[in-house]
Design brief:
Helix content: over 70%
Oligomer: single chain
Shape: globular
Number of strands: 0
Length: about 130
């Protein structure tokens, strides 16, 4: 188990994803925030917040991890991020509620995977004691 607690970066990323999810839910319930009343605008906001949440992490650590499973997972999550980004662009262009839902789901999945990895992976240089 990881010996450190949630980092400031994790809290920042979680906050950004929570804001995106809240705005998405309000929009879906027909209670949109003034100025954010369309699927297209919410798609822009969710995509920007998702990219910022991704930037709050350290993707270079995941991609350069010494253990093969971590590198494979890192590449899979990078691919998922690229696909999610593509759906985000498509949601913006089309204004589609369905594509917005896929964008939000991909954003949540990426956040959950990154957060889970942070909570279960020992920090670099951590020596396991038994």
């Amino acid at each position: 188990m990881r010996t450190s607690e949630f980092s400031g970066r994790d809290v920042g990323a979680t906050s950004l994803v929570a804001i995106a999810l809240g705005l998405y839910a309000l929009n879906g319930a027909g209670l949109a925030v003034p100025g954010l009343g369309s699927d297209r605008v919410i798609s822009v906001v969710v995509l920007v917040l998702g990219v910022l949440a991704c930037g709050a992490g350290k993707p270079e650590e995941l991609l350069s991890a010494p253990a093969l499973p971590s590198r494979v997972v890192g590449r899979m999550l990078s691919a998922l991020g690229a696909v999610t980004f593509g759906f985000g662009i498509a949601a913006i262009v089309t204004g589609s509620a369905s594509l917005l839902t896929v964008l939000m789901a991909g954003t949540l999945l990426l956040w959950a995977a990154a957060t889970g990895r942070h909570l279960t992976t020992p920090p670099r240089g951590h020596v396991k004691t038994t």
